[in-house]
Design a protein that fits this description.
The protein is of the alpha+beta class. The chain folds into four domains: about 50 residues; about 80 residues, no CATH class; about 170 residues, Nucleotidyltransferase, domain 5 (2-Layer Sandwich); about 110 residues, no CATH class. It is built from 16 helices and eleven strands. It has a six-stranded antiparallel beta sheet, with no helix packed on it. Helix 1 packs across helix 3, helix 5 crosses helix 6 and helix 7 packs antiparallel against helix 8. The longest helix has 21 residues. The termini are far apart.
Length: about 475
Amino acid sequence: MRKVDLSMEENKKYETIKKLVDTTGNKIRASIELGCTVRQINRMIIGYKENGKAFFIHGNKNRTPSNTLEDNSRQLILDFYRTKYAGANITHFSELLLKHENIKVSPGCIRNILLKNHILSPKARKTTKKKLRAHLEVLQGKSPTLKEATEIFDAIIAIEDAHPRRPRCAYTGEMLQMDASLHDWFGPNKSQLHIAVDDASGEIVGAYFDAQETLQGYYNVLDHVLSNYGIPYMFFTDRRTVFEYKKKNTSSIEEDTFTQFSYACNQLGIEIKTSSIAQAKGRVERMFQTLQSRLPLELRLAGATTLEQANKFLNSYIKEFNAQFALPFHSIKTVFEKQPDKEKINLTLAILTNRKVDNGHCIRFNKTYYRPIDCNGYPVNYRKGTSGIVIKAFDNNMFLCIEEKIYALDAVPDHELTSKNFDITPVQEKPKKRYIPPMSHPWKQASFERHLSKQEHRKENIA
């Protein structure tokens, strides 16, 4: 006769019914004790008399559930996570399996598969980490070799999340948190991802890759914000660029990222708030944590290996990311002002630098000589030492502001394009008229110098 193993609950039913049959006890009392009806007691009595103790074994015991994954499917999921989708968090991994491999499996099922193989999600909580660590320490002590014990222990991934939470802003556009993150986003080298996140909705409103944290990166993010959403009320960013400027120990204005960016924001009426404490802008810090667990894998799957490819991929990925994670814009009131036209954006996102005319009636900028040109296409001459402001617009067109007038700048070539002695002299054409923006744009030298005088870090550097 085979041995019958019962669970605690099944054994309680067996003992109660056995005693009831042997002593012809009270069925009502037995039903109260087992929490069932007298009718069910009668069924159990009949089953006990026919099959004995085996009657109380649950019918599904030792049966495999119909929705259980087969061993080869489990191994396939595990292989995908270790190779193609390495580093993805569990929820993201579940989405990628459905999107690229047509494998529909819940995050909970994936979590169980990974935990059985001692693999934690990069987003694992401290409690999960603690439980797995305790389990691994037991297995580590039972491991036959030191190598196996080390491999088991290395499966624990340390997770820390110390970002404090605070209420979101009431309106979209009220505050955009902006920052850059150095990470192995794509390719063999690390790069900087510049982003701006709306505090109210959690939507990424601008993103741009660059090799370093640069003014170009922040200008491209601001261009995306202005073109697609409008003018926000405030930017909240760190003071890293200010500190980096001090370290350079130079008074070069074009290298002063904070001053250039703040002047552009000042023209648009955007307030800038800065903090050297990372936890103060927790929204963008947590966004980077999410992107670092998802975006590198997405870029790898898309085959992006250069800055150009990565920035092109961002355009489509950010829309998909916002649709999944951000709060819908239409559900929150907005304080974004009307989008400026493309010309105003191009002229606002400029780099301004003080320069003086040399004895060749030219301006030197970035190791290149430029000649001022008026709106009719003719060169303009100023005496040596005349001060002006060189304006490099967002589209890289060059202008010069001198004495309330603006001129275009043409680069002076190192060599003549044709020789008067050996080449056929072409017919002289009249100079083409040039577009020069009006002085309504606040490029006046006095305005820019007043803004410079208000920068605390420049005062400290000069002192």
